Amino acid sequence: MEVKAFHWKGDHLLLLDQRRLPHEEVWLELKDHIQVAEAIKDMAVRGAPAIGCTAAYGFVLGIKSGERPERVYEVLRNTRPTAYNLFWALDRMMNAIRSGRDLEKEAVSIEREDYEANKRMGELGNELIPKVARILTHCNTGALATAGWGTALGVIRSAHYSGKRIQVWVDETRPYLQGARLTAWELLKEGIPHRLITDSTAGFLMKKGLVDLVIVGADRITAKGDVANKIGTYALSVLAKEHGVPFYVAAPSSTFDLSVKSGEEIPIEERSEEELKNCLGCPIAPEETPALHIAFDVTPAENVTAIITERGVIKPVNEENIRRCLS
Ligand code: MRU
User: Fold this and answer.
1) Model's pTM, two decimal places?
2) Residues with CB under 6 A from ligand 1
3) Which CATH architecture has domain 6-115?
4) In what order do the strands lie in the sheet with 306-309?
């Protein structure tokens, strides 16, 4: 059974608290834009498209509470800097209010369109997957990270349900463990064969010929096809290149930021040292040890075999093909 990360209830947003998964399923009742902003910042909800959808609902709640649109926009914007879907969704809500469109309908459309985009990416991406495939994925890009179905995990889902024999290698994804806690949970719920590995196992598996392809999601993609995604993605792309393994990215058009050309221009989120030095509430390093917690990295376009979007597959990845596909 496919899971859902959030439910719009008209006067509040029900949000599955992803920090508590997989051991507890706790739903938060968010009543205003401040609570939605906190949930995004603290990663009760995460994954670029899910952040965009929940911010849109947060915008509706903020306006209903009587707050000024510019203020609601600012509060929700200043939560996480890398995921482009957040800014894309908030800009769309601002445009809606300026042109007098119904805000609630706009947010519901953002959610519905994201779900449809994921289903379409699943179909298109499935054409790239062999009948029998060992697929490595990073972070969580499934129903929990989107309006449903998923981007990279959506392609894996579509391949599985089309009858292909899929085996998924799930990177645990340090330090937040989105792979171990969330991807494994989603795959288990649907009976999709998988096996959890530490992030550093990927290279050895590729060397042994045990990985047929890598597929990941994206938080922001530039005009020339550089891809910001969960820290560790760049290293995977280098390993894939070295071992001749195809490296695919699946992302909806709402993740593309055509205003920036190169990945160097993407703001990269740094999170607290504490998140790195503690694992599920347990200290794992000396308290005084300084740590650097970079949450995303950038994979250059030349390391990406193809980008799967709802509008088509971009291959080879370059500015001309991206603009043609998205126009
Ligand atoms: O820090 P997170 O958990 O929000 O990071 C999520 C990712 O990096 C995902 O790969 C990305 O958002 C694509 S989700 C469909």
Assistant:
1) 0.97
2) 46-49, 83, 139, 141, 145-146, 151, 178, 217-219, 229-230, 295
3) Up-down Bundle (1.20)
4) 194-197, 165-171, 132-137, 213-216, 247-250, 306-309, 312-314
Q: For residue range 57-76, list pLDDT tens digits in order.
A: 999 999 999 999 999 999 99
CATH number for the domain whose boundaries are 117-326: 3.40.50.10470
Q: How far is CA 26 from CA 14, 259, 279, in A?
A: 10, 38, 20
Average pLDDT of the segment spanning 41-56: 98
Q: Where are the alpha helices (DSSP H) in the chain?
A: 33-41, 48-64, 69-77, 84-98, 103-126, 152-161, 184-189, 202-207, 233-243, 273-277, 319-326
For the chain, residues classed under CATH 1.20.120.420 are 6-115
Q: How does strand 27-30 pair with strand 13-16?
A: antiparallel
